[in-house]
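Entry 14. Structure prediction run on the chain below.
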Amino acid sequence: MRSSIDCALGLYNLVEEQVHTLVTRSNGRLEHLQFLRKIRELEAEFCQVSESWGAPWGIAEWSGIASLALTAFYFNMKPM
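Output returned:
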């Protein structure tokens, strides 16, 4: 009887550990997707501003600037 309980407890702990790993990875992916969505939103805003100013830059230039700025912001705000 005792070995059955130990076996069940071991399996429960294994499942709990795997669920924790899955949730942690899922949260990381969600955070990354939210970051990418924010980049796309800012790219669209930058394009609107450049069009209204008549700036010669296109989406490629603004995308590069936005990506660099947001990447720097993202890594500076990330907890250590």
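The radius of gyration is 23 Å.
Filed with the rest of this week's runs.
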